[in-house]
């Protein structure tokens, strides 16, 4: 009989890693490029290669090693003719985009997003919508009925609590995005 493994402090579940990519990078990127953040998109599944890369970043592997591994990975995937979405291609082939991914995932994992209040609320809304959709589907799967008003109230409350636990904004970040700030490397930035 095998004993149940004991995970070290800081262990990240696959949901934590998915969330770091989905909300920490992909939705953040949408929020940063929109002037009017009232339009919301469903971005779908998170590519496995980005989840793997996020897990490597969160584990604390050195930046120079990550760059070298990503270069080799990109060459291998290109040689094999792998079908990749545009975001993944960009991260694997462009060092500046890889650095942005690295910084965004780290900030999300450290609960210290350097984003404006509007961008923060955009991402928070996406966390809530993701959770509500997931849990509403669970209610339907379990009961074969649409969620009741009470179910939706409970699910929305849980979603808001989850978003509050998951997201935190660096309050020192300016209210409006500073173009010069975005151009500077954030590899050494701390909250």
Count up the domains: 1
Strand content: under 5%
Number of strands: 0
What is the residue-averaged pLDDT? 83
Element pattern in H and E: HHHHHHHH
User: If you compute it from the alpha carbons, what radius of gyration comes out, rounded to the nearest whole angstrom?
Assistant: 18 Å
Give the N-to-C terminal Cα separation.
Answer: 45 Å
Instruction: Name the overall outline.
Output: globular
The percentage helix is: 55-70%
DSSP helical segment count? 8
Report the sheet with the most strands, covering strand number, pairing sense and barrel closure.
Answer: none
Derived from helix and strand composition plus strand pairing, the structural class reads mainly alpha
Low-confidence stretches: 1-9, 177-190
Structure in words:
The chain is an all-alpha fold and 191 residues long. It has one domain (14-183). Helix content is 64%, strand content 0%. The chain contains eight helices and no strands. Helix 1 (14-33) crosses helix 6. The longest helix is centred in the last third of the chain and has 27 residues, at 117-143. The chain is globular and about 50 Å long. Residues 1-9 and 177-190 have low confidence and may be disordered.
Write the layout of secondary structure elements.
Layout lengths: L13 H20 L14 H12 L3 H18 L5 H8 L1 H15 L7 H27 L5 H18 L12 H5 L8
Helix pairs in contact: 1-2, 1-5, 1-6, 4-5, 6-7
